[in-house]
Amino acid sequence: MHCLTLIQPDDWHLHLRDGAALATVVSASARCFARAIIMPNLKPPITTVAEALAYRQRIIASIPLTSSFNPLMTLYLTENTTVSEIKTAKESEYLTAVKYYPAGATTHSEYGVTDLRQVWSVLEAMQTYDLPLLIHGEVTATSIDVFDREKMFIEYVLDPLIENFPALRIVLEHITTQEAVEYVSAMSSARLAATITAHHLLMNRNDLLAGGIHPHHYCLPLLKRETHRQALLKAATSGHPKFFLGTDSAPHARVAKESPCGCAGIYTAPAALEFYAEAFEQVHALDKLEAFASFHGADFYGLPRNNKTITLIKRPWQMPNEFEFGEQRVVPMRAGTNIHWQLAQTL
Ligand code: NCD
Ligand code: ZN
């Protein structure tokens, strides 16, 4: 039997939703991760510290009593965010970062930023208070091909942002391209990092579009061609501290995915770490999983590494076809198929 024991990992990019849906998805993350950075793209979005702390309480109320899962909160950056809210966020133990959605880029991003000049003073305050900016890195112009939106964002938005705010700490979230890997790797300073999802490590755009449209593989940024997946695998398994785990597990009801205009988001939480293990094993790099999953993110955020360990066992199990999702159902990644790795029940 093949076992792998590692320091307990954290998920540095997670969507938990709210209400009845929250209660049905949170344990999938709490079973495995010690901490998670919770995305603020609720409807309406989490734009104040008070709202973030109230949301945190609802998350805590939904986790099993035995779990010590620690949700770390984020603010949704809008053109109305104030400098004083940034200061309040910095003073709160549970506010970890601010999330920047270009308006129109993804699920519930309509309150996002249309032009960075509108939030300049807020970015200055974040730089002063050393509050990290988490970026959904895609341009939104309808004229730009959807497969090129991350690459264009790096050139036209991220690079100038980095020039103008030399001390602002930034995470380019869920990177999907070789260009993003190269850009992040090339930056000598530790102020820029990137998260990588399990689904972008395991799938390419054929999994979305070949042999029919696969709505449960539709996420943003989109899955890209195989060369990009290979670049992501190389980055994730490089041991480079700038790359760390962020699942972007993003559940949507089955009916919202299997629809004429389906929502973006893949629900990976029920086997997130197991999927990463599978991806690392593909390139014979299981020895690099612990640093990627459990060290680099904590180090970037200046938080202590976890103490407990967890164990993965190479033992197949079957992913259910669907899970409860509030009043509805949600289809996980690899629904109804065999998952290669299993988490030992030690937590
Ligand atoms: C996310 C969601 O559903 O909230 N969807 C996704 O495809 N990743 C939003 C996001 O992170 O882009
Ligand atoms: Zn996300």
Distance between the termini: 20 Å
- CATH uppermost class: Alpha Beta
- Assign the CATH topology: TIM Barrel
The helicity comes to 25-40%
Total number of domains: 1
The side-by-side strand order for the widest beta sheet comes to 2-3-4-5-6-7-8-9
Structural class: alpha/beta
Instruction: Give the integer mean of the pLDDT values.
Output: 97
Portion in beta strands: 15-25%
Tell me the series of helices and strands, N- to C-terminal.
EEHEHEHEHEHEHEHHHEHHHEEEE
Uncertain ranges: none
- How many whole angstroms does the radius of gyration measure? 19 Å
Per DSSP E runs of 2 or more residues, the count of β-strands stands at: 13
**Bound molecule types:** N-carbamoyl-L-aspartate, zinc ion
Number of helices: 12
Per CATH, the architecture is Alpha-Beta Barrel
Main sheet properties = 8 strands, parallel
Gross morphology is globular
Q: What's the CATH H-level homologous superfamily?
A: Metal-dependent hydrolases
Q: Can you give a write-up of this model?
A:
- The mean pLDDT is 97.
- The protein has helices spanning 19-30, 49-62, 83-91, 120-129, 149-164, 178-186, 198-202, 206-209, 226-236, 254-257, 272-282, 289-301; strands at 3-7, 11-14, 35-38, 70-76, 95-100, 133-135, 170-172, 192-196, 243-245, 309-318, 323-325, 328-330, 338-343.
- With 347 residues, the chain is α/β, with parallel strands linked by helices.
- It binds N-carbamoyl-L-aspartate (NCD) and zinc ion.
